[in-house]
Please model this.
Amino acid sequence: MSHLFYSAKDAIFKWPMVPMQLHGTLSENLRAALSSIKRLRGCAVHPDTIDYWERLLAHARDQVRKGSAGLEAAELIRHISLELLDREPVSGVISR
Model:
């Protein structure tokens, strides 16, 4: 059990960061994430999905810092960050 991680934040400190593999542009992925976050407001969301959103944000912030992503990405990062901060934990068990 000690090899299982419950969030991407836990894994970052224990394993090398795996590069994000995006399908489409960074801005397209950020827009899709923002749309999903808004659509799922008030709903239980699988922890892997939240981890993905957090890893996408970390990747996007890194790209903005490096100058590889522009103002649109920075604005989307801001909107997603605010949505995630406002997100109240929803109790419930999520199963597949």
